[in-house]
Amino acid sequence: MATEGFLSFPPLVTWQTGQDMEEWFQLVIVCYPLSAMNDTKSLKLVREISPEERILILDVFRKQRLGVSALVASNQLPLFRILLSKLMVLSVGYCWTEFTEEDWEFFFSNLRSWIQSAVVIMEEVTENVNDLITNSSTSENFHVLKNLEKIVLIPDPYPITFATYVILSTAPISQLAILEEDATCSLDGETSGDRNSGDLELSSERNIHLKEELSLMIEKLPDEAFEVDLISQERVNVFLAWSLLLSHLWSLSSSSSAREQLVQYVQDSANSLILDCLFQHIPLELCLAHNLKKKDLELPADISEAASAVKTAITTGSLLFSIETLWPIEPKKMTSLAGALFGLMLRILPAYVRGWFTDLRDRTTSSLIESFTRTWCSPPLIVNELSQIKKANFADENFSVSVSKSANEVVATYMKDETGMDLVIRLPPSYPLRPVDVECMRSLGISEVKQRKWLMSMMLFVRNQNGALAEAIQTWKSNFDKEFEGVEECPICYSVIHTTNHSLPRLACRTCKHKFHSACLYKWFSTSHKSSCPLCQSPF
């Protein structure tokens, strides 16, 4: 095998011009190809490799790392840099999950060194050009200077900017790029010292902190941002910050505590002014005018950009297609990114967007936004929600789910020990701006109080869900599984499983012994300005 044979060669850094080893190296690289995924230019693995091959690639990669660290000065041959960069890319592509801290340090130190070298070269070019212009006669050297200007001009920062975004938005780098270290530790589930679990859980909501640069644009977005030019760099930065956050949320498992904590952080702390900014780019009046005309008329360009971006973001869960074509910045491209951001927000953070929409005071604006959402966003969202519910594994003798795509409704049946009920969940035409409707179709052997409680709990789960409805239905089922198992419900929200962070009641009062959700108790302390038990009033 080429990789095994290549292990016998010395590290790249020790190669000299004329040595016949390049072909072997190129052969190894060809054995592990990467290709562009769709139109996003992000890379995907072309083939599956065995654990043995992965070990061999890592050995080749680490041989370069150890070879470089053993030398005082690194080899500056262009060939060395080109081959090493290719090896680094395929090693990250196929083996990043096995990378150690030293491997990542080697990767980023080389990346940093090459960027710094490029910067130094450009600084030298700039100084030489400035000296030439300063010391030359314009009349004598006009044509030379014009040609020189064409050579050194960098017309577009797109390649560096887009490459930076792709790196920062890709796991595992995205978490380190977005969250402060204390939040990263918290989301990874690491705890320190002998703090008890109650203290950790109670403080978990406050442990999430974005990097300061992102926090300024997401959490502390100033009102002035609404007034800046629609293609200003400040606005572009805000949109890119939200793109990074949404991409990271999308990459997290729907059932992970990391995602739940980050979603709760957005729900509590993110400035919803971003949504107002998005609709400065989407021509709502044109959308309404088009809807009032014949449907078969061709869409105006601006509406087409927003509508296409919304659908693509909802169906793929990606924003790369819009960010890739963003530069040079133009109003039409910002419209596309605004539509993509709104679409992905509706899919990942429906309760967050619904809260913003409900608080709108301008009825004309809210009507236009609802019309746009109902026409371009809700259909693919509803199809996606019903498909996920149909595919979900609810296999349980006590629980069943049926889906009616024609009526946009779901019937959930829960039966346990000769008691149970049928609940129907209806998705409105402008879902998720308008909340789903939940109705009891049939109940068996349960009191009216319990029937109301089950109905209300389902309504709370599906309306507070930032994510797929299938997850909310599964959580509702788990809630009553726990109740039948004898798990005590939280006396504040009357639910076993918390409706937003899905935690169980764990914080017990030392006097009355009742257990509470940490989020419910934290909210109780904050609003009542007391630190006593909500039931017995003893100091907590």
TrEMBL record:
Location of the RING-type domain: 490-537
InterPro entries referenced in this protein's UniProt entry, alphabetically: LTN1/Rkr1, LTN1_E3_ligase_6th, LTN1_UBC, RING-CH-C4HC3_LTN1, Znf_RING, Znf_RING-CH, Znf_RING/FYVE/PHD
Catalytic reaction(s) noted: S-ubiquitinyl-[E2 ubiquitin-conjugating enzyme]-L-cysteine + [acceptor protein]-L-lysine = [E2 ubiquitin-conjugating enzyme]-L-cysteine + N(6)-ubiquitinyl-[acceptor protein]-L-lysine
Q: What class of enzyme is it?
A: transferase
| Main location as per UniProt | cytoplasm
Q: Which SUPFAM superfamilies match?
A: RING/U-box (SSF57850)
E.C. numbers: 2.3.2.27
Family according to the record: Belongs to the LTN1 family.
Name of the protein this chain belongs to: E3 ubiquitin-protein ligase listerin
Provenance organism: Salix koriyanagi
